[in-house]
Write a structure and sequence with these properties.
The chain is an alpha+beta fold and 429 residues long. It has 15 helices and 18 strands. The strands form four sheets. The protein has a six-stranded mixed beta sheet with strand order 3-2-1-4-6-5, sandwiched between helices. It has a five-stranded antiparallel beta sheet with strand order 7-8-11-10-9. The radius of gyration is 23 Å and the shape is globular.
Length: 429
């Protein structure tokens, strides 16, 4: 029975210590089935269910659809929250940017509601579509691992501290539509799912004519996931032995150790770039491979790639810190803008440093942009940080005054924690 199968999966995936569950709910057929399963399961496990509904504001009808979805969620027993993507919309790469905005809204809502897990309605069909697209893009065998049923902070920094669960990943869209019909679960059809200007819609139409490929893709994903897990185990061993992380947001890596594991070096550096840069933007494989070859040479002195800076450091160590050019701007990159902070919510600055700040009207800003305004004590503390890493640190401003800088003890006024190691751990686990 499908309901029992999904309920068993939910029991395996959902944290037993958490009182609340967040479900991304569009009102469509897949997410409607998921919310129905979750609400039934939650009643017997004493859990609150939050249905998070994102209004991208891309169609006039979206407001009414979100209101209808909220009503459906409430009837199922969930607490509905409509999240709005405000501001001007992009004119290019719309689906990609809308996807990131959606997850940023979902991640923020989860943290506000005290939910550490977010359930998504991806199905076996979605997995096949993802793999088909990656095959066409020649993403390599790691890309063929596809989506996982459980993933920690898969989209960074939008979903930091959030574990994503996909309990329907082994179930087909047809099975879910049959469940909806049998259980009178209402849902709406998003017209954008028929818009062939979007790549996924075109792929979906192609796969509909090739049903046998879906089964093959499922097997491919399973095999690739096993290979990827084995590789990550080896990478974790390399990092455990040769990597040192620091609270100021950088790391050092033993070059001799990296050279001894040269076959893993490009992947090791890929994960370190993402963690130290604070983002998850892909970097061309060819560039990472050139970097991996370069850092192991005696003549190597330094390089920048993907938002990270690499410096040959003392005792044959590779110092990896934030690229100053990304902070202060270069070429077509704008300098990092100040961010308003308040006591209401923490801020993950630059995807690396989490700030809890008490007070209103305060701003986070790159510390080296205000170096001349630092006190003698603040400057002295800053000297304990390697010079290449200082540009990647922030300070707290009140007006033009620097009221806090890295390493300064400020009681509960400012608390900063570094998320570089946490981000790295989520990627290689």
């Amino acid at each position: 029975m499908l309901t029992q199968t999904v309920h068993n999966t939910l029991s395996q995936l959902i944290d037993g210590h958490s009182n609340s569950i967040a479900v991304a709910f569009s009102g469509g057929g897949d997410s409607a089935a998921l919310l129905s399963f979750v609400c039934k399961w939650a009643k017997t496990h004493n859990k609150n269910v939050f249905a998070l509904i994102v209004d991208h504001g891309l169609r006039d009808a979206s407001v009414g659809e979100c209101i209808a979805a909220a009503k459906t969620a409430a009837e199922m027993g969930a607490q509905a929250h409509i999240l709005n993507w405000d501001g001007p919309k992009p004119t290019s790469a719309l689906q990609e940017k809308a996807r990131y905005a959606r997850y940023a809204l979902l991640g923020h809502a989860c943290r506000e509601l005290g939910c550490t897990q977010l359930l998504l309605g991806h199905t076996q069909d979605d997995q096949a579509e993802t793999l088909f697209m990656r095959v066409k893009m020649q993403s390599g065998w790691r890309g063929y691992a596809g989506m996982r049923m459980r993933a920690q902070s898969p989209i960074w920094p939008a979903l930091y501290d959030i574990e994503v669960l996909r309990p329907l990943l082994g179930i087909t869209r047809v099975e879910l539509r049959e469940y909806n019909a049998q259980n009178e679960v209402p849902y709406i059809d998003d017209p954008s799912n028929e818009n062939h200007k979007f790549a996924r819609v075109r792929v979906r139409a192609q796969l509909a004519k090739l049903p046998e490929i879906k089964t093959q893709f499922t097997l491919t994903a399973k095999h690739a996931q096993a290979c990827l897990a084995e590789e990550k185990e080896k990478i974790r061993a390399v990092l455990a032995e040769y990597l040192t992380s620091y609270p100021w947001g950088g790391v050092t890596l033993d070059i001799v150790g990296l050279t001894a594991h040269s076959s893993l070096a490009p992947e090791v550096l890929k994960y370190l770039i993402r963690a130290v840069s604070g983002n998850a933007q892909p970097v061309l494989v060819e560039k990472i491979e050139r970097l991996a070859t370069g850092v192991c040479r005696e003549t190597f002195r330094g390089a920048t790639l993907g938002g990270a800076q690499f410096v040959k450091w003392q005792d044959n160590q590779l110092l990896i810190v934030r690229d100053p050019g990304d902070i202060f701007g270069r070429h077509q990159k704008k300098p990092y803008e100040d961010i308003l902070v308040s006591s209401q919510k923490p801020i993950l600055w630059d995807g690396r440093l989490l700030f809890h700040v008490k007070g209103e009207g305060l701003r986070l800003s790159p510390v080296m942009a205000h170096y001349e305004s630092l006190s003698a004590t603040q400057k002295q503390i800053l000297k304990t940080v390697p010079e290449p890493a200082r540009a990647g640190l922030a300070c707290v401003l009140q007006g033009d005054e620097v009221i806090w800088s890295y390493g300064q003890i400020a009681g509960d006024l400012v608390q900063m924690s570094c998320y570089v190691e946490a981000h790295l751990t989520t990627m290689v686990t």
